[in-house]
TrEMBL record:
One of its GO terms (cellular component) is nucleus. It is found in: Nucleus. InterPro entries: Homeodomain-like_sf, Myb_dom, Myb_TF_plants, SANT/Myb. This is Uncharacterized protein. Signal peptide: none annotated.
DNA sequence: AACTTGCACAACCGCGCAAAT
DNA sequence: CATTTGCGCGGTTGTGCAAGT
């Protein structure tokens, strides 16, 4: 079946762009704007595939592109961001004005990675495999990064490092309850924090639930936490923990829907009965609270904490609940 | 001077996602 | 609902240049 690569089409040029081609592309985009890459080459009189044009524009001709050596600050920022985001070059590039994802990717592969390796740091750790729900949540986190929640991500990363230390120094304990603080800032900024058992395989589901829920009560001494999923302004779709049970969405599709809502409308969430079909019940012991701190292991804490922060931006009348 | 190596940069390529059909 | 299509992303490769041998 396979698609025919656009670069392979007959009669199209490949390789380095000439000044003349640049001129044509620039002139066309200045007049007609970006987009419609497929038909752009024909209209602009270029013997290139659209993909090649887009790349040339994005990485070279686009106004505002900073060229030349990366400063120490920029390099430091890349290392920092990469530790949190992994190889998400396009997201990283949004934090470095004037730098393209390609450029950042290049500098990482040709210089920074080797430098870190020499220092005994293994930058490949971010490529470890994580669960599908965790990947989904990471995706959400990534989407939210441009919205200014980088600090929270950093906080989470710090927490994860702490956790790793904890894991190394402790024996295998499936239901370990010892929490590890993510960061003081995080605790202060989040209206509620939640502790979870690191062992539960369904933790991702719990995280998803927490993303779409309001933690109403956090009492470290009680060793329990209450989670309300839903919307106080719309009582008919509110779900409460019943007894020792935390209710949460189970189906991935439902979760995806929730996450989409959060991504597209931060701080705004609509819940209806039909959207919460497939709710499962999980004993709350699996997610019991610890000593008032947060910890997490599966690479999704960033998403959770980011969403926690969103709560703080909700209107007063909604009592801190995500509503629509 | 000739060759090798490393680096920086640009571009190619395949794939996945989402909108359009 | 299934398929097609366009776009964007990330991995990889190619090329030119400078420094080292």
């Amino acid at each position: 079946m396979g698609r025919i690569g656009c670069y392979d089409a007959e009669g199209l040029r490949k390789g380095a762009w000439t000044a003349e081609e640049d001129k044509k592309l620039l002139a066309y985009i200045q007049e007609h704007g970006e987009g419609g890459w497929r038909f752009l080459p024909d209209k602009a009189g270029l013997k290139r595939c659209g993909k090649s044009c887009r790349l040339r524009w994005a990485n070279y001709l686009r106004p505002g592109i900073k060229r030349g050596k990366f400063s120490a600050e920029e390099e430091h920022k890349i290392i920092e961001l990469h530790a949190v985001l992994g190889n998400r070059w396009s997201i990283i590039s949004r934090h470095l004005p004037g730098r393209t994802d390609n450029e950042i990717k290049n500098i990482w592969n040709s210089r920074l990675k080797k430098r870190l390796a020499k220092m005994g740091i293994n930058p490949a750790s971010s490529s470890r495999s994580i669960s599908a729900p965790a990947q989904l949540l990471n995706k959400v986190a990534a989407k939210l990064v441009p919205l200014g929640f980088l600090d929270t991500l950093k906080s989470w990363q710090y927490g994860q490092e702490k956790l790793t230390e904890g894991e190394e120094s402790s024996t295998n304990n499936g239901n370990d309850n010892s929490g590890i603080a993510i960061d003081e800032r995080c605790r202060i900024e989040s209206p509620g924090t939640m502790n979870m058992s690191k062992s539960a395989s369904t933790q991702s589901h719990s995280k998803m639930a927490s993303m779409s829920s309001q933690i109403l009560l956090h009492d470290p001494s009680a060793n329990t936490c209450d989670i309300k999923v839903g919307n106080t302004c719309n009582p008919e779709c509110t779900m409460w923990p019943s007894g020792n049970t935390l209710e949460m969405p189970r189906a991935a599709s439902t979760s995806s829907w929730v996450l989409d809502e959060i991504v597209t409308k931060p701080g705004v969430f609509h819940c209806s009965e039909e959207n919460w079909q497939g709710v499962s019940s999980v004993p709350i012991e699996d997610y019991s609270c610890g000593d008032g701190s947060i910890y997490d292991i599966v690479g999704i804490g960033g998403a959770y904490d980011i969403v926690s922060n969103i709560y703080t931006e909700l209107p007063e009348e909604c009592n801190g609940t995500i509503i629509h």
